Structure formats: C-alpha cells, structure tokens
Amino acid sequence: MKTAIAAFLDHLRHARQCSEHTLRAYSNDLQQWADFAAGRGASAPKDVTPLHVRGYVATLGNSGKARTSIARKLASVRSLFSFLAMRGELQANPAAVVKTPRVQRRLPKVLSQKEVGGVLDAPVFDDSFLGMRNRAIVEVLYSGGLRASELLGLTGDDVDLRAGVARVVGKGNKERQCALGRPAVRALEEYLEKKRSLGFDDPAIFVNKFGTPLSDRSLRRLFATWMRSSGLGGKGTPHTMRHSFATHLLDAGADLRSVQELLGHASLSTTQIYTHVSIERLKDVYKKAHPRAGRR
C-alpha cells in the first residue's frame, strides 16, 4: 500500500502540480487509511474490497470524526484507487461504490466592509516597515481576492502597479490577473519603497523583519493578532479576506461569472456558495430593519 501511495503522491506533485499543503493532507489521510487496511489484512491495494472501505468510514464515524473530515478522507482513498485503476493496476475502484456521508455545507465567514476598515485602523498598521507591510498584505488580499499561497508567491515581476494588476499562479498551476484598487496600489508603493530603503532585495514581495520571504505559518499567526487587535477575536484568517472580497462584489451587483474568473475557480458551483452568503446577509438586514420581519 505504501508504494502505491508514494506513486500517487508523486503523480499529484508532478502531473497535477498540487501544493505542498495539499500533498501533506493527502499523505496524512492515506497513511491513516494504510494503517487501517493493514490491520484488516489488506496490506496491498489488490486485497482491498468495498467492505474494507465501508469499515474504514464506519470506524471514523465511531471515533467521533466530523462528517466533513470523513468525507475528505474517503475522497483521498477514492482518488488513490482511481489513480491505480487508471494505471491498470486494479480492475475497479473499490471505494467508488461507497457513499460519501452527507455534509451540510457551511457558509464561509465574511467580514463586513466596516469590519475590514476596522482591521486597517488597528495600531499594528503604522508607518514602520512591518506596519506598512501589514497594511499592504490586507489591502492586496481584499482588493484582489488572493489566496494566502498566491499572496506569498508574489514577486516584483508579478505586479504592475501602474496598471493596477497582479499576476498570480493559483491551484493547478493556473495563472490569472488580479485587480489592485488604488488603496492596495498605494499601500504596496509605500511598503516597497521602505523595503528597498532597508536594502531588502529578496524577489518575494512580502518578507519578514529579516528580509526573507514571509511563511504561511507566520502570515496566519499575524492575521490572528490583527483580528484580535481589531476587536474581532478569532473571526478572521487570510482566506476570510478572499471570502469578503467575493461577497462584497456580489452585494454590489457583480455577476457570478465575473466573480468566478476573479477568484480563479475552475467550477461555477464553487463560486455559488457566495450567493448564499449574500442572501443570508440580506435576510439579516431585513430582519433587523423591517418592522414586521419577526412576526407571522
């Protein structure tokens, strides 16, 4: 099983161009599956039957795993066997007939426009080098709807401040252009000027206090600090800005197809979740504002 998993991960890395974060998630899920299968006498892929996969799903459920987690782990197993079947190593995918647990789709957390402004008014966004960098990060995430990995992957060659656009490489190594509004351009100009004055010449736009590329872990830790300093507690992550970007566009009348392209979603169904967010926000406004909204 471990040899098959290694080959599958290699396929994801080179043929599918998956990120290191995605590869780690697959690796962890499939290692857990391999341990379970070996304990049930199915140490090789050819030994696995649908009953083994159903038993794995049942064991996960009995251990208290959330349905979302079970669904993801089953999807990892299904993808592994689909890969092996595609290569002719198996006649059929034993996980294909196992039903995925029904998962209630959660609406993404979104900041209001006022809350986004409140974040940028926090004391950590001062005129120091790190303060300028912090402001530029939030402005670019919110203005362009970038993922954290896309933001951290930006280099000087990817940004055209005069045109107000940034070239990013998203999931599946797909390239797209992201718009940068005037506040984002201004924040980037000020930050990059300060960066140059300190002699930091790393190609990565966003760096730490030592001038080396900012890591994903550091960005998330910083974001938690910014949210707390803005009185939002643990409400926000870098991805919250992307959710807010999409929702605010739809609230203002942008069409779904345009938002899909701006986000770099391969499927329109992925983008449609934001229409539900907008509807829920409208319902909330209605309930608060209409004198008879709470009565039947």
Tell me what you see in this structure:
There is one protein chain. The chain has 296 residues and is mostly helical. It has 13 helices and three strands, in the order αααααααβββαααααα. It has a three-stranded antiparallel beta sheet. The protein is globular and about 60 Å long. The relative contact order is 0.09. The model has no long low-confidence stretch (mean pLDDT 90).
Keywords, please?
about 300 residues; mainly alpha; hpI Integrase, Chain A; 13 helices
Basic shape? globular
CATH class of the largest domain: Mainly Alpha
Count the domains: 2
For the report, how would you describe the main beta sheet? 3 strands, antiparallel
Overall pLDDT = 90
Strand content: under 5%
- Helix tally? 13
